[in-house]
Amino acid sequence: MRHHLALAFLLLAGALVAGCVSGTGPSPYDNAVMAKNIYNVTNASSWEYAVNMSAGGTSSTWNMTVNNTRVTGPEGPLANGGEMYMTVGTVGNGMDILYDVWWNATTYKIDRMHAKGLIGDYYQDRDVSTQQIMTLPDTGLIYYFVPLQYAGAVTIKDATGKQGQLGIYTATDNKGFRLTYWAHPAVPLPVKIETTSRDVNLTMLLINYTQ
Q1: Is CATH 1.10.10 the classification given to domain 2-210?
Q2: Kind of pairing, strands 2-4 and 33-34?
């Protein structure tokens, strides 16, 4: 079943929690919550995020669509039963590209990536470095083992007036990078994601998902 998240719900969430993420402990490991305990991408077969990126005084938006399946049998590149196959599609902001990603469901290690499509005028159809996963918006595979601090919760209403509560989790490093998740225990993916660095701010709003 595909679950659609009302955009008003997401925007209201963003408005209510702006400026509320603060007061983390003196150590990133004090009372830490691992990202893998907040969400689990293996419990979703597809999802879509609206992405907004601000950098250098400019802003751009696009959608990222992900499909996620378990590879079984001899057709798998590793055929080990723990292998997952993900496609990550990005259309907009000068991009029309699809990434194939093979990853391990136990270790979350990226085993292989293939890129096909356009970034600007550059077309590619080839295997690429698995490090390219770091150049994409959060696919659920990058920060899975990051320890986060619980920073409170916010009660919000969707477009129908139904109330819900999102937990807020955040992590920072010593280089000015900050990661924040807004999560609901009934949703297998973060409802909202923000990453902030010295040069780039990225906001992702979950539009829909299928379990």
Answers
A1: no
A2: unpaired
Structure tokens at 182: 């807004």
Percent of the chain with pLDDT over 70: 80
Least confident among 4-18, 48-62, 108-122, 180-194:
4-18
Domain boundaries, given as residue ranges, for the chain? 2-210
Q: What is the pLDDT of residue 127?
A: 92
CA angle (190 as vertex; 184, 195 as ends), nearest 5 = 135
Global pTM reads: 0.80
| Spatial contact of 162 and 141, defined as CB atoms under 8 Å apart | no
Q: DSSP 3-state assignment of 11?
A: helix
User: Do 8 and 116 form a contact (C-beta atoms < 8 A)?
Assistant: no
Q: Name which of 182, 171, 185, 186 is nearest 206 in CA terms.
A: 182
- DSSP conformational letter for 145: T
